[in-house]
Specification:
Shape: elongated
Strand content: under 5%
Distance between the termini: 50 Å
Number of helices: 10
Largest sheet: none
Number of strands: 0
Mean pLDDT: 82
Radius of gyration: 29 Å
């Protein structure tokens, strides 16, 4: 065994459960995403798996640090360290799995919002074009040459003025402002869900991972990109009739009740999986039942 490898093992053997998990996260996150890390992991020996490697490290560190203490005290502390490290690994896995699933759903919803906005903008352009050419001054039916005495720019201005007052085409079943308001509501909901995921990840990172975001880099980037796209869609919708009330992405604000609820749910799931991994099925089932 090389000197460098022995030095690394001594460092790992002296880490606390949180420090050990943070070091492992740094290694795992270098793969960019959870799937790439998983593909690499299945080609490795069992000792590379975090739920095998990390408990062994922290238990060894506890026993080394507590040499000469009563065995029951050492065993209790070793069990506590093992439980803590297993919990953190499960929490890391669960938060990434949940974020992967929800981010993909949000991505599809953002694509739908994009297409709906495209249709609204095209509709707006069409309505403005019709307003400027049909001259919606007194109604849709106008005698021919009613305004032949006007210059082209005067006709255009009359059409624009009428467009500002009449915002639907004759064949519309739902007025354009109502359709825009519906779109704004959908966009605000998707943005709120994106913000909930982002805030939940930050909250768990601050509480359990010493301020380190527990998400794989690719997932964190995709989540941030969703907020940017939603902001861009909101900016593109400004100026449409009925486009008031567009919410904005908020960075660094205190977690709300929904954020804390999702974080607590993931923590409880991680606790249940931890007790199950440690062989305490009764406690695991008790937590699982409380989540139903």
């Amino acid at each position: 065994m090389s000197t460098e490898r022995r030095r690394l093992e001594r460092i790992e053997g002296a880490l606390t459960p949180q420090q050990g998990v943070l070091l492992w996260m740094q290694e795992a996150h270098q793969f960019g995403d959870m799937i790439s890390y998983g593909r690499w992991l299945v080609t490795q020996a069992d000792e590379a798996y975090p739920l095998i490697r990390l408990p062994k490290q922290v238990v060894g560190a506890v026993r080394e640090a507590m040499k000469g203490r009563p065995p029951e005290e050492v065993n209790a502390q070793a069990l506590r360290a093992q439980r803590d490290v297993v919990f953190l690994v499960h929490l890391h896995k669960l938060v990434n799995e949940r974020m992967m699933q929800d981010t993909e759903v949000l991505r599809l919803e953002v694509e739908l919002l994009r297409e709906k906005l495209r249709a609204l903008l095209q509709h707006t352009a069409l309505a403005q074009h019709v307003a400027c050419h049909v001259l919606l001054v007194g109604g849709w039916e106008l005698p021919k040459n009613s305004f032949s005495h006007l210059k082209p720019w005067q006709i255009y201005d009359l059409g624009k003025d009428r467009w500002s007052a009449k915002t639907c085409l004759p064949f519309d079943q739902v007025p354009l402002p109502a359709r825009v308001r519906e779109w704004v509501g959908e966009r605000n909901r998707v943005l709120a869900e994106q913000q909930e995921l982002e805030t939940t990840a930050r909250l768990l990172g601050a509480r359990y991972f010493a301020g380190t975001l527990p998400l794989y880099p690719d997932l964190a980037e995709r989540l941030a990109l969703l907020a940017e796209v939603l902001e861009a869609l909101g900016a593109a919708a400004e100026g449409l009739p009925g486009a008031s009330g567009l919410s904005r992405a908020k960075k660094g604000e205190r977690p709300g009740r929904r954020d804390q609820g999702l974080a607590a749910h993931l923590v409880d799931l991680a606790k249940a999986e931890t007790w199950s991994a440690l062989g305490d099925q009764d406690r695991a089932c008790e937590i699982a039942v409380s989540l139903l």
